[in-house]
Amino acid sequence: MISQVPVAKTASLPVGIFDSGVGGLTVAAAIRQRMPREQLLYIGDLARQPYGTKSPQTVVRYALKAADFLVRRGIKALVVACNTASAVALEPIAARFPGLPVIGVVEAGAAGAALASSHGRIVVAATEGTCRSGAYERAIARRRAGAHVICTPCPLFVALAEEGLTDGPIVEAVARHYLGPLLDHAAATDCLVLGCTHFPLLAPALGRLAGPDVRLVDCAEATAGLLAEALSSGLAAPAGAVGGLTLIATDAPDRFARIASVLFPSMGGIPPVELADLF
Ligand code: DGL
Could you tell me one molecular function GO term of this UniProt entry (predicted)? Predict the structure, then answer.
């Protein structure tokens, strides 16, 4: 039984975002691009990553802790910038914070795939937890009946991204190991969904492996679109507001800042990262 927590929302509050690490910054970057006036409050749960190999019960527990933390700091909407948590924890989070707009990345990725795929032959690269949940298969089937969806776990991609190792021979070898047989065989595959927010960081290598006939789908922009819609009824930052980014990590804040600044030069400087515990 989940106890409910009331949330007071106002347009001047930040948007809360969380992931297990740097991956969710792919979503934060798309939100900043689309809504530069918004303040973003981002937490990377480095102390507990990876989420993708954990049981659903554990991921729900971690996700509720992260959401609790952000709501206590004060947010007007929550973006679950983690597919693994979006796959299993959206309902528990929404049940705990009635009235708080909660946006997950799986719905956004599935919507992108349904649009991008020409023949409905879709491969989803994700974490073990996301694949085990069947969330992508269900979300794509709701939008595109008859689509053929294969979800395949690629857990080492998370470690590579957290290491700042996003291209080159090691990334190519790991990508071939996970996806080569699928992409070679399924000549008809027309869409590869990057079903973990860490994976867009490896997009150049994944795109080369997939080839020009396979569309890569990243959930970040579609998520920013869903957030814009959720804020459109009186919650968007007012004209003239100055946007910003506050970063928090549950461990190793300096490492988080270093990797984030290597991976996200376009974010215009990574601010110092606060350390916080979720217990
Ligand atoms: N970036 C997350 C996801 O989208 C989690 C990766 C992990 O911690 O395993 O699934």
Answer: glutamate racemase activity
Query: Are 189 and 243 members of one domain?
Result: no
Q: How many CB atoms lie within 10 A of CB 220?
A: 25
Residue 114 sits in the same domain as residue 82: no
Which residue has the least CA distance to atom 2 on ligand 1? 82
Binding residues for substrate, by number, are: 19-20, 51-52, 83-84, 197-198
**Residue 131: active-site member:** no
219 flagged as catalytic: no
Query: How many Å lie between the centroid of ligand 1 and the Cα of residue 179?
Result: 18
How many domains would you assign to the chain? 2
pLDDT-derived band at 92, boundaries 50, 70, 90? very high
pLDDT at 8 over 90: no
Q: Which residue carries 């909407």 as its tokens?
A: 77
Coil/strand/helix, residue 127: coil
Whether 6 is in a domain gets the answer no
Identify the pLDDT of residue 181.
82
pLDDT in tens, 46-86: 999 999 999 999 999 999 999 999 999 999 999 999 999 99
**Going by C-beta distance under 8 Å and a sequence separation of 6 or more, which residues neighbour residue 119?**
188, 190
Q: Give the Cα separation of 132 and 138 in Å (integer).
A: 12
Confirm if 16 and 245 have CB atoms less than 8 A apart. no
Strand-pair category, 39-44 with 15-19? parallel
